[in-house]
Write a structure and sequence with these properties.
Blueprint (H helix, E strand, L loop, with lengths): L2 E2 L8 E6 L1 E7 L2 E6 L5 E11 L1 H14 L5 E3 L8 E15 L2 E10 L2
Parallel strand pairs: 1-6
Antiparallel strand pairs: 2-5, 3-4, 5-8, 6-7, 7-8
């Protein structure tokens, strides 16, 4: 498995989505059940700010996965690596001077 070795910007954000089945019985009563073995999935709105050369490297890496191949990434340096794949759009922005930013979404896979 390939590794995403670049560190994400500090303003990258993580969301956790739970997969549950909820049945409502009326009068406000309901029963919720965890659905699936891995019912909590993380998603990331991620970005990396660096030089154009580094941003182009990251762009090439993400494009080469075709949003289908998963890779290992450590979104938070103090936490264990997760398996993820790119999902949705990838954008590159020139911030001025030598600074560039690449933004993309990640979805945890199991």
């Amino acid at each position: 498995m390939r590794n995403f070795t670049w560190q994400l910007d500090q303003d990258s954000s993580e969301n956790t989505v739970f997969n549950t089945q909820v049945t409502s019985f009326g009068d406000g009563y309901e029963q919720a059940v965890s659905f699936g073995i891995n019912n909590a999935r993380k998603t990331w709105q991620a970005s990396v700010t660096n030089t154009k050369a580094v941003v182009d490297e990251i762009y090439s890496f993400l494009i080469s996965t075709k949003a289908a191949e998963s890779f290992s990434i450590t979104p938070v340096p103090s936490e264990p690596a997760i398996k993820a794949r790119c999902e949705g759009e990838i954008s590159r922005t020139h911030l001025g001077g030598a600074a560039w930013r690449i933004s993309f979404n990640l979805k945890q896979v199991f």
